[in-house]
Amino acid sequence: MNDRQSDEVAVDPATGLAAESVRIGSPFAVDPLPQTVAIEPLLDVGPMRYTAMGAVAASMMVVGFASAALWWFPAGGALVAALGSVLAISGLFSNYRTASLVLLFVHVGLFVANYSQVLR
Questions:
Q1: Residue 65 belongs to what domain range?
Q2: At what angle do helices 48-72 and 74-90 cross, to 10 degrees?
Q3: Do the domain assignments include residue 85?
Q4: What radius of gyration do the chain's Cα atoms show?
Q5: pLDDT tens, 28-80?
Q6: Is residue 103 included in any domain, yes or no?
Q7: Which UniProt keywords apply (predicted)?
Q8: How much of the chain is helix, strand and coil, in % rounded to 5?
Q9: Does residue 25 lie in a domain region?
């Protein structure tokens, strides 16, 4: 075998073109455009984005428990509101930033209300 043949590119005998340039599939198909989505590097947290979306949903559910505890068990309500604040902060990395920010203020307000009931 010749050393030159190992360096040469394989040629398709039907078309006479290099094997890398042979199109596979429909000859009428249009090449898709490359799709790029601009994401801020600071907020590109990968799979954690979906975890943050779940944290927003959990923060919404915790609002009910913290507000019910305001009248029934304020010490526990302060802890639940603190948990809701942590969930809302982690939800800031999701697509629901506005809802998460509103929930953060709601939980801080519930924490202050529950804590003031504990001090009485």
A1: 47-119
A2: 160
A3: yes
A4: 29
A5: 777 666 666 665 665 566 778 888 889 999 999 999 999 999 889 989 999 99
A6: yes
A7: Membrane, Transmembrane, Transmembrane helix
A8: 65, 0, 35
A9: no
